[in-house]
Sequence to fold (191 residues):
Amino acid sequence: VALRSMTHVELDSAVQLHGIVGEKGAVVRGTTPLVELATGNTQLLSCVIATGHEQTVPRLLVSANIHGNEVNGIIVAHRLIATLEAAVASKTLVGTVVVYPSLNPTGLVANTRTPSYSSDANRLWPSQEPKPDSAGCAADDNTKEDYVDPLSEFLKWEEPSAQEQAWTKLLSEWSGAKFDYHVDLHTAGSQ
Fold:
């Protein structure tokens, strides 16, 4: 399990991701279009937004199956969704939890770490490590531009694939939702 702390924002508005809008006291399901496949179909990601009755913060993002052959996280995500449904029904959920049970459905179907049309999406996260200054030291007053972005570094050498462009858009959308935490579920084995 990887835990990434995001910036906490004191606000009480509904989470909106790719047209899926969370509602207070509800569990909302939808799909997020990720990438157009060679077949002409669009790969969709399932998304569940569970929001408490009273407030929408704190906000937790839970994702699983970024590697298609790591399936245990999908089971955990579905059990979490069932727990969230019960918590919303009993009015005990505080805040918002967003769950993406599979970030790599084509890799899941093919039982491969990465989709056939892309590199490892887990290597495309924005970095939490500041870029060193000219003396090799991290500055105390870093801005967003001062952080290493693996995707940008990668794209200096390669033309971005449709998947990489889609991941950039998805990560940007997540950033705009102002999650307090992100838990990404991984496993060491396949199946």
Residues 33 and 44 are 5 Å apart (CA to CA).
